[in-house]
């Protein structure tokens, strides 16, 4: 069966009725990037930069970051690479002293873009490294933990300045570097129409979105049953995010674990999703699932999915 699956590495992620779905890869290591490339991913949809900052005593400088990002871009040979800016917080072990380690509630603390905006020099260094890597292939910048418009506007301003500086010092960089927001804070999802104009693309982080929407810690074993995307609130919110993005002509992917689990593929397609970002280990399984789906049929069934009243009803929908 693995062999059958492996044959799919050269096949398109195309539904039975002929619609192409984009399957990007999540990556954080050289191995992930090589595998994503070999398995025919559309590009990197989420490059997590945290690992560069963890398990060490000082922050990586611009040169080290630049080389790491450039290698990812070169490794993908012209396919799009989406680099997420630092998503550190007190929930991730850190020895560089960047993070406030004694926060009472790390998941609701100074993490993601909040940390970046509070450490402007550090953030600018990372943006410079990313922008320099754009000279080697298509790069997009993705910002984690966005909760309001002001944060996107602040990042855009900084990114513009970095681009201007690098241009004027003669660096070869891309003409256009799309800026995107992770949608993983419920407020950002609900208020999306008010700030979607400020971004070029979106990526839905269902790991955190489910955690914050259901007020259920993603790492708490005692809540493992409750912590599930199969909640009517999650269905409705995902549907609304995807619809808003498509109406405004902005690409939207789901990059949480949910996107990499083939049991959810028909459900996500039914909600209107056309772009997924997932770990390369599950890329072929999801591609196989996509190839077995009839998109027109699934879209017709979306109203029934949105009417499902509880988890059991959603599961019944999935198995019918
Ligand atoms: C998410 O929250 O769904 C996500 C992709 O980001 P992370 O798992 O790194 O928080
Ligand atoms: Mg997240």
From TrEMBL:
The chain holds residues 250 to 569 of 569 of the full protein. General (non sugar-specific) component of the phosphoenolpyruvate-dependent sugar phosphotransferase system (sugar PTS). This major carbohydrate active-transport system catalyzes the phosphorylation of incoming sugar substrates concomitantly with their translocation across the cell membrane. Enzyme I transfers the phosphoryl group from phosphoenolpyruvate (PEP) to the phosphoryl carrier protein (HPr). It is found in: Cytoplasm. GO terms for molecular function: phosphoenolpyruvate-protein phosphotransferase activity. It catalyses: L-histidyl-[protein] + phosphoenolpyruvate = N(pros)-phospho-L-histidyl-[protein] + pyruvate. Keywords: Cytoplasm, Kinase, Magnesium, Metal-binding, Phosphotransferase system, Sugar transport, Transferase, Transport. This is Phosphoenolpyruvate-protein phosphotransferase. Its EC number is 2.7.3.9. Its cofactor is Mg(2+). Residues 4-293 form the PEP-utilising enzyme C-terminal domain. Belongs to the PEP-utilizing enzyme family. The keyword 4Fe-4S does not apply. It comes from Luteimonas galliterrae.
